[in-house]
Amino acid sequence: MHSDELFIGGSWRGASTEQRIEIVCPHTEATVASVAAAAPADVDRAVEAARAAFDTGAWPRLDPAERIAAVRGLANVYGERRPEMADVITSEIGAPISFAQRAQVALPWTMMTAFCDLAQNYPWHESRPGRYGSDIHIRREPVGVVAAIVPWNMPQFLIVTKLIPALLAGCTVVLKPAPESPLNALLLAEMVAEAGLPQGVVSVLPGDGALGGYLVNHPGVDKVSFTGSTAAGKAVAAACATNLRRVSLELGGKSAAIVLSDADPAAVATGVRSASLSNSGQICNALTRVLVPSGRADEFTDALAAEMTSLVVGDPTDAATQVGPLVAERQQHRVRGYIETGQTEGARLVVGGAEMPDGLDRGWFVKPTLFDRADNTMRIARDEIFGPVLTVIPYADEEDAVAIANDSDYGLAGSVFTADTDRGLDIAARIRTGTFGVNQGYTMDPFAPFGGVKDSGYGRELGREGIDSYTDSKSISVAATQDPAAATAGKGA
Asked: Are residues 454 and 432 in contact, defined by beta-carbon separation less than 8 angstroms?
């Protein structure tokens, strides 16, 4: 890989400084790679290239069909290199290889194709009758140079949900991956070059939060698309407000799974495990609050405990592993701190705990941990822990369950488990979130918009709305054509 160079404007170039980013394997705790770190001067070069490609280049002026064909070409290259991408992601963030193959790589590849399908039927040009007799033409035009900033937990998925719709819309993109996971982004840059996308259209700049701040504030950027923590998102929003810059924010979550009394405990346990503990719980829409009817609380808790204790924790390169390490030692300490806080606050530790999993003496692992007998005021019920920690909270009745679910600073996702689908849909309509699942976690369907409300951010990715966010609507009014006969008669009079 191009570990000593940066992908700037479609070409591999030397970095402006000798700063490096060391990538440490979360399983072995050994350094697996070192790559060049971008500096502000490199951002300047990348934005300049993106600006030139957008302002005077061909890309934003192509027929949408030509851009769709180019992105399909990138998808073809991506498809051929999926195994390599999965291995890279497992090595740098510790995602179990089975999950990396399925969700970290196959899902983004599928979404590339889905976005192309959406773009084929997207209303790039639209005509409508005006109120005052004029013809109205609507053009959806690219918003400009996009700064795309992504975290480490689902790097390719989060890159694709920004990069691909932006490209299809005709934008140019400067991408900043997280310092924990630059390798997969650099591998994608190789694919961009192999696919032959035009010069200036894509840049990839690994760097830290300070570099991201410089990119967000760069005067050559027209839109920022950011995924990360709520605290960082607020800083991004403030910077964009100062500069009157478009911004989309996909931030944190503390989603609730409402379990109704008619639900099957085993099915609930399986559904919650899949929606909450994949990627070691490092997913923003994880169902980390499990709300159960107080009369059946022990039954549902026992089913969850059985499911969690059966999980295979260990080497992420082993296909049998279901839970790997957390991304960094600091994250391990953070999650363990929340486990200790939960016990101090009075919740009952059912399974798991702050100790290393059995049989492991290295790596940044945390046991899958379940609390019950909790209430919604506890920190483990309010803060985004971002690890394999679930909290069971009992409720009195349906109204109480809805109130608890809505009593959160976040509003990204949620679910309801019930034998009655209509009842589940009624619950879904009463929960203030951007996404919701009935008898499952939210599926991240590429044809449906994804995003949150409240402290989970604003703006939408995926679906037609994912393309909308990278376009500006231009309205053109055309005066009604005058009847020639009437004009002639008027002159004679």
From this structure: yes
The tens digit of pLDDT for each residue in 166-177 reads 999 999 999 999
Model-wide pTM > 0.90: yes
| Tokens describing residue 35 | 């790559």
Find all residues with CB under 8 Å of 364, minimum gap 6, and list them: 26, 29, 94, 325, 326, 327, 328, 329, 331, 332
Place of tokens 């920004």: 162
Write the DSSP assignment of 474-492 as a string of letters. Answer: EEEEEPPPPPHHHHHHHHH
For 24, list phi and psi in degrees, rounded to 5. Answer: -110, 130
Asked if the model's pLDDT at residue 116 lies above 70, the reply is yes
Which pLDDT tens digit goes with each residue over 364-381?
A: 999 999 999 999 999 999
Q: Which sign does the torsion angle of CA 160, 445, 26, 82 carry?
A: negative
Please answer whether residues 418 and 263 qualify as being in contact, where contact means their C-beta atoms are separated by less than 8 angstroms. Answer: yes
Specify the pLDDT at position 482: 64
Cα distance between the two ends of the chain = 80
What are the catalytic residues? Answer: 250
- What is the DSSP code (8-state) at residue 490? H
Would you state the pLDDT for residue 493?
44
CA–CA separation, 444 vs 100, rounded Å? 16
Domain with residues 255-438, CATH architecture: 3-Layer(aba) Sandwich (3.40)
Q: Is the dihedral of CA 292, 296, 300, 305 positive or negative?
A: positive
Instruction: Report the amino acid identity of residue 359.
Output: G
**DSSP secondary structure letter of residue 127:** E
User: What average pLDDT score do residues 264-274 get?
Assistant: 97
The CATH code belonging to domain 5-251+456-476 is 3.40.605.10
Structure tokens at 154: 């689902």
Domain ranges for the chain, please list them. 5-251+456-476, 255-438
- Residues 440-485 have pLDDT tens digits of 999 999 999 999 999 999 999 999 999 999 999 999 999 877 665 6
Q: Does this chain's domain 5-251+456-476 share its CATH topology with 255-438?
A: no
> Tokens standing for 340?
């200790």
Give the span between the Cα atoms of 458 and 8, in whole angstroms. 29
Cα 484-488-490 angle, rounded to 5 deg: 115
In which band, very low, low, confident or very high, does the pLDDT at 486 lie, cut at 50, 70 and 90? low
Rounded Cα gap, residues 349 and 303, in angstroms: 15
List, for residues 181-191, the tens digit of each pLDDT value. 999 999 999 99
- Which strands sit side by side in the sheet containing 135-142, from one edge to the other? 125-129, 135-142, 471-478
Quick one: residue 339, left, alpha or beta (phi over 0 = left, psi -120 to 50 = alpha)? alpha
Tell me if residue 89 falls in helix, strand or coil: helix
Return the pLDDT at 490: 53
225 bridge partner residues: 148, 248
